[in-house]
Amino acid sequence: LPFENLSSDKENAYFAEGIQDEILTRLAKRDAEIFGELQESSGDTAAARAKFNSVRDATEAILREQPDSVRSLGLLASAQAGLGERDAALQAIDKAISVQSNDARTQPYYQETKARILARFGEKDAAIPILEHLLTIADEGGLFGPPLTTALLTLEPDWDELRGDPRYQERARDKQHETSKSSDPYAGGTL
């Protein structure tokens, strides 16, 4: 990454190097998490477990030094969910939500992560109200990807566990009819 020290003080070069190192480290962790999810989806559970363990170990090391690192808490929660560690995953994501409680820009991302974890463990009664809430708020996405929409709910495999629920099916069917009149493919709304 092309970060340069533009300061006239050459001793500040460490700052540019530090930013570059931090960005590369964060990207590597997020890539490992995504790669683990892809391996899991393709049926390579042993490789997925290894990736999730790698992400868990790396984020736990960061959290020992920075216990309120929200991004690390979110990554840890996702990795723990991938490892089947339900209670630990929910504890980590709840802490991230608590730490970010006053940040309207990032709060939807961590709420969505919690809903994904709950859906992974088949907890429809807890996941669906979170999704309904997320679909009613003004979220433009941004830092961590696009906002949650009914279109994404029908496409992403993370929500497979919810699709058999009659509440989910009814609301998705109602919303599909409503959004079919819209030209906006990302139209949100109630689940």
Task: Explain what this protein looks like in three dimensions.
The protein has 191 residues and is mainly α. Helix content is 65%, strand content 0%. It has helices at residues 13-41, 45-65, 70-82, 86-99, 107-120, 124-136, 150-155, 166-179. Mean pLDDT is 77; it is low at 179-190.
| Helical segment count | 8
* Distance between the ends: 41 Å
Strand-pairing-aware structural class: mainly alpha
Helix content: 55-70%
Question: Would you tell me the overall average pLDDT?
Answer: 77
Q: What is the general shape?
A: globular
Largest sheet: none
Strand content: under 5%
Radius of gyration: 19 Å
- The arrangement of helices and strands along the chain is HHHHHHHH
Instruction: Let me know the number of strands.
Output: 0
Question: Residue ranges: pLDDT <50 for 5 or more in a row?
Answer: 179-190
Task: Furnish the topology, listing elements before pairings.
Blueprint: H1 13-41, H2 45-65, H3 70-82, H4 86-99, H5 107-120, H6 124-136, H7 150-155, H8 166-179
Helix pairs in contact: 1-2, 1-3, 2-3, 3-4, 3-5, 4-5, 5-6
Keywords:
single chain, 191 residues, mainly alpha, 8 helices, 0% strand, globular, disordered C terminus
Short structural description:
This protein is mainly α and 191 residues long. It contains eight helices and no strands.
